């Protein structure tokens, strides 16, 4: 395959945003708050080249399906643009839109839902031909449907033409859905988790079929999947999404073998070894994915990030900054309060600091004391914390113990700052890919081992 950069992109996505539900809910009205839309996709840019298979990966709710639906015009973007073969799809004439709807198709996750139970296989597959006024004569239409059914492995087609979906297996239904997408001879197909509802034993067969069809029909695919082994198997290029943002994109093998964004690293670490065929560690990330209604400021991943960047004048270790910052987040969320500390052995500010500096991460990333105490406390001597920060944390802990949460929060807010929370990172080129992480600003990044403050370290190379 040519280098993607030498070819024309078939799909150009620029600054794409989709906000849902901008109306004011009851809670917002009562509290007098501005409505908070769900920021499902928020500033995604991506080029998809003719003949490529591009994968979009990320945890549930990160905006993959919403992105896919915008690409086939099932959703209109709130902001940003999508160009297909050079033409802006948000601003098309009726005629251009008809042509677009032939050239671009989508295959959905659930073949049980996506097929009309009252339509035969013939009617299902022939319908797009009728809708698009493509083949007038019944005999020619039937020939075309027969041909496509056989192309998707449903042969002899006569066996299937008059069958209803409930007479077919899951794999056969998904093949009918694929035939329905192919019958109009499209150029680009968005496949949203196309095999995740199928029995594991037949997934490979359907994926291999889709690969064969790609060359036969000269297709470009966008695969949406949370299954990273599928992305690895199918896709030349991949984009990793987190909370509506594209955090990293580039050649799939490069991303998997040497993830650059801390979220990508955590995502791939979380995959069982057998799936990616290499020794993987558990994800070094704290906490849960926040709500897309109220995403964190700056880099959306920063509250969970193992590589959060300390300020320039930080004199402790990066691990100590991460712990101190987690302490601040816990105080802000009210997770550290006299009531929450119910074990009975925390009576002093110092004990509360030792408790608050713990990290909610797998055991291999914890200190000895954390492991020994089941994550209840760290030994302060094992955390390379600057003296003035230790003083600030103790002051905040005293405020917490005195029941003055506001004072605790303001003490920490002024003292523990990070560029990661201040502004959203722009995607930066780094070797063969783009990474939206402040560690790659100005072409620089620290090593991925979590050591060092990281702003002025060596450039990232692939
Ligand atoms: N029609 C809608 N109205 C309101 N919110 C929506 C709508 N569709 C999606 N969302 C929200 O937008 C966010 C992104 O959803 P989306 O389905 O695109 O994510 P996803 O990555 O595809 O997740 P999954 O793998 O679970 O399908 C979620 O918070 C979801 O609840």
Automatic annotation (TrEMBL):
Domain ABC transporter: 21-268
GO BP term (any one): peptide transport
Keywords of this entry: ATP-binding, Nucleotide-binding, Transport
Matches recorded under InterPro entries: AAA+_ATPase, ABC_transp_ATP-bind, ABC_transporter-like_ATP-bd, ABC_transporter-like_CS, Oligopep_ABC_C, P-loop_NTPase
Gene Ontology MF annotations: ATP binding; ATP hydrolysis activity
Stored CDD domains: ABC_NikE_OppD_transporters
Positions of region (Disordered): 420-462
Cited PANTHER family: TRANSPORT ATP-BINDING PROTEIN (PTHR43776)
Protein's name according to its UniProt entry: Peptide/nickel transport system ATP-binding protein
Organism: Halobaculum gomorrense
